[in-house]
Amino acid sequence: MPFEIDAQTIQDLRIFDDNNPSRESIFSYFNKTKTFGGKLELEKMMQYPLDDLSALRERQEIIRFFKEHPFSLALSSAQMDFIDHYFRLNKAPLKANALESFLTKYWVRQSERNDLYLIQTRVTNLVYLLLELEKWLSEVIPKASTPTLQAVLAVFEEYCNLPEIKRMLSTVTRKPQKIPAHLYDGLFRSKYKRETEELMGLIYHIDAYHAVAETAAIQGLGFPEYVESSLPEVDIEGMFHPLLKNPVPNDWAVKENKNLCFLTGPNMAGKSTFLKSLGLSLYLAHLGFPVPARSMRTTIYHGLVTTINLSDHIDKGYSHFYAEVHRIKEVAQMIGSKKRVFVIFDELFRGTNVKDAYDASLLVIEAFAQIQQCTFCISTHITEVAEKLQHKSTMLFKFFEVDIVGTTPNYKYQLQDGVSHERLGMLILKNEGILEHLAASRQSLP
User: What region, left, alpha or beta, does residue 296 occupy, with left being phi > 0 and alpha being psi -120 to 50 degrees?
Assistant: First the structure.
């Protein structure tokens, strides 16, 4: 049963940002790859979350391995790209004969000398890479812990032990000044072409894993612990949003038969950022990746759905309220097919009048609270709903506290137990001088 995550959730959490490549996304946050192939591997991993416990634990162990035993590519990204292009050269391999090599070098047409230079450069880069790989393998092979990692390293070791490759690696010095390309071009692009291309594919795979491990080390990310339980359980300590410069960490947990968090707080108090952080932590945990938290325990879910930046779908003739209703229908259908789903709604039913929003919120939240195999976190400004829900044993109530100093809100961004009835909309309006600006605009009219 594949883990389900839809386009709206990917957009809400800013997993990828193809529409605005200059803006940081979660993908760019982790993308410390040095190869184009590694970048593609990382992107593929991040597109498909997992809900298989053994697969998640194995991926996590591989990332831990590269965090503890980094494979530092001595070559630059440009040099690695040269190697990748090397296998697509539409030119016959050089002859492994010194005389023919000399004649080829000095008697070819000027138009072909560029090809020879490219072959020489890329063969040299590839030999450098193999030297680094051989050195690293000698240190890490005994420490490989997972079957997948052992199999990958075994392929590397077998390649380095191919007779001609082994002889080459023992012949060249650690920092060779001049590598005779004619001796090795035929090995790489003819005799061992399939093996060499397979090796490069594995290096791209390692590059992707190493990028995640490096990010975890630099950013202080924690590895989630997966627990098996009959009902959903999530416990996160020190959770933060990874794209913020100075995030305020928060703790959050649902367990002991609790399945729905009712979140309140005034405008700008931190509700949306918290919900995005929570969604990201669940998403990354189901990639087997480290998460933006000090620690995390979670059961395995089969899907994640968020509704944070929902549009009105004007192309389909949907109002914002109808889009919200349609979204709840999609959630219900996902729950019916996936069973255990993590659901996040930010400002439920913001697209209708207060009376309808109150009635609809109460109806939907009460229904969600009865679905104990799923977990829900729902924020709302309609705090009056909380009075009707206090008796629900499956719910917990959280809010973000704000202190008012004079006429200035002091946002603490710290999650508290309970319900906030604080409203700052009018205060923010007054502090920004909106009425004065409107009055001045009116006076300036002819």
Answer: beta
